[in-house]
Structures are given as C-alpha cells and as structure tokens.
C-alpha cells in the first residue's frame, strides 16, 4: 500500500501497490501491520456500506465524539464521490481546515479520516457505493454533524446536492457544534 500524507494532520490517501500481470492485478487493500508500522490506527471493528442511487446525493458531515471517536478508511467501490474531510480537533494545527479527494471505482484510492475529523461526500455518478472500515462501533448518542454548507468552512462542492437527508441538511452551525462537542467531552 502507498500512503500519502494530506494537508490535514494525520489524514492520508492510500493507493494500491498493484502487482500487474496478464490477468490484471493483485493488491493489498488492508494490512494492520502496514498501518501499525507507520504509527497509523489499525483497529477495525465494523465495515459499513453506503449505496446511493442518484448522482449528487450528499451524505455528511458526520463524526462521533469521545469516548466513541472513530477512525475511518473509505473507499468507493462503484461510481465516484467528491469526499471532503473537515478537521474539527481544536488542538490540531489544521483545525477548521478541509481537504477534498475524489474516490472512485476507477482510481481505487482510499481516504483515512482520523478521529476528531468529520467526513462528507457528494456522489458524482448514479449507483455509487462506498465502504467504510471503522475503528469504533456506531454509537447513536455520540453521533454529531456539521451542515454541508456551513459558512465557517467554505467548502466548494462541485454541484448542489440533489438528494440529502433532513438530518444532514439541518445540522447546526459550527459555533453551536463546538458547544455540543464540549458538552459531550465533559460527560
């Protein structure tokens, strides 16, 4: 696997290190030891799948607060997404910054989203499917979110969402979200 640091601290894109021959290729898509050797999180407790029927479906921004924070390794296995990672870690040098990465079935790129960061994506094709390897069990009481168009972040999406859930369209502004995070951390 080929790990490339992004502009967000502790976030990486992960490319396949392909062994190509006349049949196609073989590559490792996950290796606990390779992650550990680089000091990256290597605990996986769940694999989640997001199937999206329509182009321009938006999901996110989602994350979980302590003690249920989760690392996520995302890969698009059918179609394509414009994936955005927000750094919401107050002590991080990249706090409140974001990056965007295209994940697609064609490029087979993965994105490691570290604990304390929120993630969202906009599908770029119909019938898009994304897998998530996650380091913590989903805990509904620890779930938080940031609205996709919160002006605090200025994310430039490639298109307006055509499909978005009520929950994702109504997350509070980040100022309110900081209050929610602080409250959860003190519990």
TrEMBL record:
State a single Gene Ontology molecular function.
dTDP-4-dehydrorhamnose 3,5-epimerase activity
The UniProt family comment states: Belongs to the dTDP-4-dehydrorhamnose 3,5-epimerase family.
Q: What organism is listed for this UniProt entry? A: Bradyrhizobium macuxiense
- Active site (catalytic residues): 62, 132
Give the Enzyme Commission number.
5.1.3.13
Protein name, per record: dTDP-4-dehydrorhamnose 3,5-epimerase
Enzyme class per UniProt = isomerase
Reading the lineage from the top rank, the first entry is Bacteria
Has UniProt tagged this entry with the keyword Isomerase? Answer: yes
Instruction: Fetch the InterPro entries from UniProt.
Output: RmlC-like, RmlC-like_jellyroll, RmlC_Cupin_sf
User: What reaction is this protein's catalytic activity?
Assistant: dTDP-4-dehydro-6-deoxy-alpha-D-glucose = dTDP-4-dehydro-beta-L-rhamnose
Q: In which pathway does it act?
A: Carbohydrate biosynthesis; dTDP-L-rhamnose biosynthesis
Site (Participates in a stacking interaction with the thymidine ring of dTDP-4-oxo-6-deoxyglucose) at 138
Q: Name one Pfam family in it.
A: dTDP_sugar_isom
Q: Which UniProt keywords apply?
A: Isomerase
Q: What's an example GO BP annotation here?
A: polysaccharide biosynthetic process
């Amino acid at each position: 696997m080929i790990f490339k640091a992004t502009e967000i601290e502790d976030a990486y894109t992960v490319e396949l290190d392909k062994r190509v021959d006349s049949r196609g290729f073989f590559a490792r898509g996950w290796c606990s030891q390779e992650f550990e050797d680089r000091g990256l999180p290597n605990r996986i407790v769940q694999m989640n799948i997001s199937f999206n029927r329509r182009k321009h479906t938006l999901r996110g921004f989602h994350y979980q607060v302590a003690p249920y924070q989760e690392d996520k390794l995302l890969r698009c296995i059918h179609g394509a997404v414009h994936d955005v990672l927000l750094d919401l870690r107050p002590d991080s040098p990249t706090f409140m910054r974001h990056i965007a990465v295209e994940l697609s079935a064609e490029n087979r790129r993965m994105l490691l989203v570290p604990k304390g960061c929120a993630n969202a994506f906009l599908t770029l094709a119909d019938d898009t499917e994304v897998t998530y390897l996650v380091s913590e069990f989903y805990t509904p009481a620890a779930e938080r979110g940031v609205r996709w168009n919160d002006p605090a972040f200025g994310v430039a999406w490639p298109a307006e969402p055509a499909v978005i859930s009520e929950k994702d369209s109504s997350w509070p502004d980040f100022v309110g979200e900081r209050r929610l995070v602080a409250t959860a951390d003190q519990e």
